[in-house]
Amino acid sequence: MSSFSESALEKKLSELSSSQQSVQTLSLWIIHHRKHSALIVKVWHRELKKAKSNRKLTFLYLANDVIQNSKKKGPEFTKDFETVLVDACSHVARREEARETKLSKNSTTRRRRRR
């Protein structure tokens, strides 16, 4: 496995796709580098907030996979993700709500124009 650096993690997060294989592969890499868990979670949280709306849920899938599969190795990720998950989920929910509101307004505007 490649060595850990913040820039390597940023690159891997930017290449993350919603496929199960992509999530599991990155999850394994992250768990392998669990001694950097605090930095990993910090970077994950920052990159989640920067990600496009259609990629945010994938970041949550990744966090879930890391938390579930790292429990056997130690509590690092459970503890570190605990500090950011409420904010991360709220962020994703707010963005989704704003997107749905925008779509609803656009739909209403189009209907009015047709009349």
Overview features:
ENTH_VHS; Regulation of nuclear pre-mRNA domain containing 1B; nucleus; 115 residues; mainly alpha; Serine Threonine Protein Phosphatase 5, Tetratricopeptide repeat; 6 helices; single chain
List the helices and strands and how they pair.
Elements lengths: L5 H10 L4 H13 L4 H14 L2 H18 L5 H7 L2 H30 L1
Helix pairs in contact: 1-3, 2-4, 4-5, 4-6
The CATH architecture assignment turns out to be Alpha Horseshoe
Gross geometry: elongated
- Give helix and strand order, one letter per element, not per position: HHHHHH
Name of the level-1 CATH class? Mainly Alpha
CATH fold naming: Serine Threonine Protein Phosphatase 5, Tetratricopeptide repeat
Radius of gyration: 17 Å
Strand content: under 5%
Biased composition (Basic and acidic residues): 94-103
Main location: nucleus
Region (Disordered): 94-115
Subcellular location: Nucleus
